[in-house]
């Protein structure tokens, strides 16, 4: 499927882009003895982890149904996005601690043209990856792509404010780096928590949303022989759902006719609600 092929490419591009940034940041960081740049190279290493999680999670999720996994492996997307959310929260905590330390100890961020060049390169690479994954997200509902997109966006913003802080340090605004760091760390943590909740909900088998449940009820009303729908249950199998419910039919109707109605309703639901993978309808004659 294109969905899995494109997610695989997004993971590979993320790994290559972040590996490139890790190398140049580490080289310039150690060459200039800049602790800030050395720390930023560690952040790129964490970004490689996020892209690697995307690649592995997508690989597992793309596996077809088998005897051991009757509904496929789609939940792998949410398991590995769960890991990415934890890494984002971890990075935000580290950035928060560094920012507080910087403010308390009045740490000085020294101006350097090398640091500015690396920041600009980082922004270009990360913004390109952000636009690429954002475009993919519009086509495919994939939480791994969403997690990577937000990770690239966060890095763009972090580096942009780091660049501003470096320039500001040349104007003696040394406190700006710590203050900006506090704001960014809180925002990254918030983003990580949102992805954490979305992943957690699917892994805990959250039901389909009310709008789609109402649409199922409305589609059933198109069949005059269906008296009512009862016991509608759903469970996620990745980004799609399995839906189970009961329809009440006149007991005098033939078995063939009642199951024909159920089959037609099943097709209507699958054709109208993209997020549903399978529909199981129990026919109850009354």
Short description:
The chain has eight helices and three strands; from the N terminus they run αααααααββαβ. It has helices at residues 2-32, 35-61, 76-104, 113-139, 143-169, 176-203, 210-220, 255-272, and strands spanning 226-236, 241-249, 276-285.
Please give the radius of gyration in angstroms: 25 Å
Distance between the termini: 43 Å
Fold-level CATH name of the largest domain = Alpha-lytic protease prodomain-like
Fraction of residues in β-strands: 5-15%
Please give the largest β-sheet: 3 strands, mixed
Helix content: 55-70%
Order of helices and strands: HHHHHHHEEHE
Number of domains: 2
Q: What's the CATH superfamily of the largest domain, by name?
A: Cation efflux protein transmembrane domain
The number of E-state strands comes to: 3
Question: What is the CATH first-level class name of the largest domain?
Answer: Mainly Alpha
Mean pLDDT: 84
Q: Which outline best applies?
A: elongated
Give the low-pLDDT segments. none
What strand line-up does the widest sheet have?
1-2-3
**Could you say which structural class the secondary elements and strand pairing correspond to?**
mainly alpha
User: What is the overall number of helices?
Assistant: 8
Please identify, by name, the CATH architecture of the largest domain. Answer: Up-down Bundle
What does this structure look like?
The protein is mainly alpha-helical. It folds into 2 domains: 2-203, Up-down Bundle (Alpha-lytic protease prodomain-like); 210-285, Cation efflux protein, cytoplasmic domain (Alpha-Beta Plaits). Helix content is 69%, strand content 10%. It has 8 helices and 3 strands; from the N terminus they run αααααααββαβ. The chain has helices at residues 2-32, 35-61, 76-104, 113-139, 143-169, 176-203, 210-220, 255-272; strands at residues 226-236, 241-249, 276-285. Strands 1-2-3 form a 3-stranded mixed beta sheet, covered by helices on one side. α2 packs antiparallel against α5, α3 (76-104) runs parallel beside α5 (143-169) and α5 (143-169) runs antiparallel to α6 (176-203). The protein is elongated.
């Amino acid at each position: 499927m294109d969905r899995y092929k494109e997610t695989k490419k997004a993971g590979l591009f993320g790994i290559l882009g972040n590996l490139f940034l890790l190398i140049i940041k580490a080289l310039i960081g150690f060459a200039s003895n800049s602790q800030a740049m050395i720390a930023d190279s560690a952040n790129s290493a964490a970004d490689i982890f996020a892209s690697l999680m995307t690649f592995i999670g997508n690989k597992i999720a793309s596996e077809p149904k088998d005897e051991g996994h009757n509904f496929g492996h789609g939940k792998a997307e949410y398991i590995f996005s769960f890991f990415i959310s934890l890494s984002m929260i971890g990075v935000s905590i580290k950035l928060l601690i560094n920012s507080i330390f910087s403010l308390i100890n009045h740490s000085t961020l020294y101006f350097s043209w090398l640091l500015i060049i690396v920041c600009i390169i980082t922004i270009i690479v990360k913004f390109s990856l952000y636009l690429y994954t954002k475009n993919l997200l519009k086509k495919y509902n994939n939480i791994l792509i969403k997690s990577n997109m937000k990770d690239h966006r966060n890095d763009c913003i972090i580096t942009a404010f780091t660049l501003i802080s470096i320039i500001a340090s040349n104007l003696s605004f040394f406190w700006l780096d710590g203050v900006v760091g506090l704001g960014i760390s809180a925002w990254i943590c918030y983003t990580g928590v949102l992805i954490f909740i979305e992943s957690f909900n699917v892994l805990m088998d959250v039901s389909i949303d009310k709008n789609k449940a109402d649409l199922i009820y409305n589609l059933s009303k198109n069949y005059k022989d269906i008296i009512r729908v009862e016991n509608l249950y759903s469970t996620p199998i990745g980004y799609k759902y399995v839906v189970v419910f009961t329809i009440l039919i006149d007991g005098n109707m033939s078995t063939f006719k009642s199951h024909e109605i159920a089959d037609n309703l099943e097709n209507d639901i699958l054709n109208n609600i993209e997020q549903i993978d399978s529909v199981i309808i129990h026919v109850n004659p009354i």
